[in-house]
Amino acid sequence: MHYTSILPCNETTAAIIQASLDVPTQELATSGAAYWASAACLYSSNSTLTDQAWKTWVRINNYGYIPSAAAGIFFIAAFGLSFLLHAYQLFRSRRWLYICTEVGLVLELWGWGTRYHAAEDITTGYVFQLAGLTCAPTMFATNLYCLFTQFAATQDPAILRELGARKTQRWLIIVEVLAIAVQVGGASLAATAGGKSLFDIGCNIMLAGIILQLVLTVVFLAAVVAYFTRLRRATEERVLNVRNRIGFLFWGVVVMDALIIIRGAYRTAELTGGIWGPIATSQIALILGDAVPMLLVVYGLNATHTMWTVVPFERAKEHESTDIGLVQRRTSNGSSLEKADAAYLGGC
Predict the structure, then answer these.
(1) pTM of the model
(2) How high is the pLDDT of residue 86?
(3) Which of 142, 162, 199, 210 fits a disulfide with 193 by CB distance 3.0 to 4.6 angstroms?
């Protein structure tokens, strides 16, 4: 895109650009003079002045860099493929709560689509991509909680003795919805802000929502480890082997939750340092701290979908006595856990 300016490129605008080179980014971002001066000289015949104008232009726009079109294409394709796989699994399994993952993937696609467009026009879409990529992981976390509680509902209720599977799921979703509401509220305020003050308030509200989600995911990880430790004690010692259906589910949940924690830590550091801080203005940090972890999470949700990990236990439970928990029951033909694992290994 060829940018234009209301000012001519002359000695005055050149002096403004040169003076801006040593100005902190946060202060520079509010300078109208530097904005128009750098835009005026982006295509100057003086190569040195052009380089200085582009450095100022990139810093004065919120990204702090020119978003990579190649990265935009890659993540649009990668998240898009997972979206299609989740759509198939959603309608095949009729587990409608997985619509949350689809909504999260739409937000990821929106965010990366906006960034791809920004590769051509850096002046557009910063707040919208920030809002989309910030809110999307809350949707993935919601399905992660549901995956765990749906599995726990097929096992001995005594193992999750504090609350029970349904109450645990209810409270996890309530807190997650609260985190989503706070983040969406902050994103909406930032997107419609008419000045820097309201924009900063919106970002701080988003930060509060991210911290709330980060705390919840850490607590959830501790609860998952405690639950599966109890489950292992109630069954055979090798129940958490990765080639065991339960083990595959356990390690999948642990890894996905850890990735959400990593992403939450990145976003917390980013917004704490401000949108013109060194983390927020690093494209590499965004890709490694947010995009890659979330890409692994959505494919992890594909791999650990309840179609493969929970439904076999639900079917086994239907054919067993309801008086004793599934993990404590054994039949003459072997335990229902063994049957489910045999089916899993047979499908590998």
Answers:
(1) 0.76
(2) 95
(3) 199
